[in-house]
Design brief:
The chain has helices spanning about 15-25, 35-45, 45-55, 65-75, 95-105, 120-130, 170-185, 185-190, 205-215; strands at about 5-10, 30-35, 85, 110-115, 130-135, 140, 160, 195-200. By secondary structure, the protein is an alpha/beta fold. The structure holds adenosine monophosphate.
Length: about 220
């Protein structure tokens, strides 16, 4: 079925970004990552980026008004008409309520909300070791996925890599706390709408992808 619309939920480092990229390719739908949007704004030095940087570095959440505004503008763009994967949004109950209203006003309904579950102890290890190719964005990990040739991206051959400013042990604690305090309460919201599916994300990436595909269908 074409035109899938879904939310990928889960803790920081739980693999949402990686899986969203795979689903994007598999289903021809757009990944809407609010974290990526904010990092692009920080990099470009826009007023939004300047405002968001300190909040992100502290592992806290950017205000609901800003985030809802960003998504409201993005989701109505032409490339979202064929479907989308929300990755990192909504993250609070007010964001979820604003999204419900936004979708209702536009006559759009969600196909699924999928929670990728991973225990906290695993997340710290996953987050603190990760890095990406600066050119093509391929993800790597110091322990779990090193480039085949040290220092060279497997996909595009670039030798430049970046680590996220907030992927350090101190910030991870705050990000996990924000997740448990502010984002976990969204699960009952979507369960009540009959949309929530829970997947065990503490397994090999390919197995998790297969599970996602079996939830979403062909
Ligand atoms: P992520 O890449 O999804 O882990 O997001 C990185 C950081 O961006 C988060 O720790 C927050 O500071 C901020 N952020 C991303 N999405 C949201 C959101 N929906 N609401 C509030 N803050 C967000």
């Amino acid at each position: 079925m074409a035109g899938k619309r879904l939310i990928l939920m889960g803790p920081p480092g739980g693999g949402k970004g990686t899986q969203a990229k795979r689903l994007q390719d598999r289903y021809g739908i757009v990944q809407l990552s609010t974290g990526d949007m904010l990092r692009a704004a920080v990099k470009a030095g826009t007023p939004l980026g300047k405002q968001a940087k300190a909040v992100m570095d502290a592992g806290k959440l950017v205000s609901d008004d800003i985030m809802v505004g960003l998504i409201a503008e993005r989701i109505t763009q032409a490339d979202c008409a064929q479907g989308f994967i929300l990755d990192g949004f909504p993250r609070t109950v007010p964001q979820a309520e604003a999204l419900d209203k936004l979708l209702k006003d536009k006559g759009i309904s969600l196909d699924a909300v999928i929670e990728v579950e991973v225990p906290d102890a695993r997340l710290i290890e996953r987050i603190t070791g990760r890095f990406t190719c600066s050119k093509c964005g391929e993800g790597y990990h110091d322990k779990f996925k090193q480039p085949r040739k040290a220092g060279v991206c497997d996909v595009c051959g670039s030798t430049e890599f970046t680590r996220r400013a907030d992927d350090n042990a101190e910030t991870v604690g705050a990000r996990l706390k924000a997740y448990h305090d502010q984002t976990a309460p969204l699960m009952p919201h979507y369960r009540a709408q009959g949309l929530l599916k829970v997947i065990d994300g503490d397994r090999d990436m390919d197995v998790v992808t297969k599970d996602l595909e079996s939830v979403l269908g062909t």
